[in-house]
Amino acid sequence: MPVSIPQQFGASDAKWPLLGIADPERTLAWRDGRAVSASRFLAHVHSVARALPQASHVVNLCEDRYAFLVGFCAALVNGQTNLLPPSRAPQAVADIMAAHPGSYALGDQESPASALPHVRFPDLSDSTADDVAMPHIAADHVAAIGYTSGSTGRPHANAKTWGSFVASTDGNLAMLRRHLREPFHVLATVPPQHMYGLEMSILLPLRGHVGVHAGHPLLPADVAAALDGLPTPRVLVTTPVHLRALIRSGQPMPPLDAMLSATAPLPEALAREAEATFGAPLLEVFGSTETCVFATRRSARETAWTTYPGVRVHPQPDGTRIEAPQLAEPVVLADLVEATETGFRLCGRGTDLLDMAGKRASLADLNQRLLAVDGVDDGVIFQLDDGDGLAVKRLAALVVAPSVSEADIRAALARDVDAVFLPRPLRKVAGLPRNATGKLPRAALLQMLAQATTGE
What we know:
By secondary structure, the chain is α/β, with parallel strands linked by helices. The chain is built from eleven helices and 27 strands. It has helices at residues 38-51, 65-77, 90-99, 162-177, 195-207, 220-228, 240-249, 268-278, 363-371, 406-414, 442-453; strands at residues 15-17, 27-31, 34-37, 57-60, 81-84, 104-107, 118-120, 136-138, 142-147, 157-161, 184-188, 210-213, 234-238, 258-261, 282-286, 295-298, 305-307, 312-316, 319-323, 331-333, 335-339, 343-349, 353-356, 359-362, 378-384, 394-400, 426-428. Strand 2 (27-31) and strand 3 form a beta hairpin. It is globular.
């Protein structure tokens, strides 16, 4: 799983400070109900940097978001590169470490696999309070290598320099400042190892006047309690899947000032319901592990995406070429778009468009129709291909619908969907194999489908 390093970002001798705002007293994080100042954070970074082993790469597995933040920055101070695995599964971590010989894992819990070289996150109480010198990181230093989720196949590696992170984060801050006053405070339900989680809960407090909650709450009551411990303005960073769960729980939430969503398409109806339920604007952001975030929209009111300053989108027959301040060279995504005056409209993905028996359909549209069926709590339609052992391409579906039969679901879909695009097989399951960001790795879907059809 080798990774190619991109061209240098900016001048080879350029350096950027670790913190974009030098105020030592500003609140950078909230941990155990207490504010952590920027000066205290820098002391923690220097202390952990001294404790880390000499190596070129580190897999940061810390679950406490503040520990991840400190470890991420300590690695930068030591000239190391953070490896961001697509999951914490032992084999996924082992594969990435094998691709980077001599790397080690840093964690605040037990090692995910005893055979992995593992370093326990140090005790922060030993930090020297006056060790608060501001580190400067070379712009062309590869700060992290992020891996795609594997939702369409094998994970791919993407290297990010510190200079590119500075540029992409400044774009995110400019977008948020149009809706929020600083300082604001972030609670994220997505892990920091994912690029979206990294951008919105790790890099934001480094570059802006932003404080981040150290937790990673998932249950609605825990999300409410964590938000209640933050000052206003409050921002919830989450996913469509988690938003739907929060709404359906009926759990009251403290007042929110904004919500961010990514990792999967956000249906307009869900966006409107979320804004009505929580009384705050819901901002959907568009990006990828390859590009970082480069566009946004308020999905309850807008269908078109507005690109960040300096971003250019160039529609192509097989995708879209993206130019952005954080990219050393253009990146081509599989997304198909129509350019607008201020950005673009998303038309689907090259892999999303289905051509079967002379007819065409969108896989994303089929999934929206499935989720709209009464009684369906969650579900996914995906394509089976020759590589899955079938002579003819067809669609399959896994559905979470405790109160509705498979036959009723098929009948509801048949009212709106051409017969050639009806999923066969369609199987009910207790839950979908979503990862920590709500995505569905293809391998996990195929395994679940095989288990659900065993015995037929």
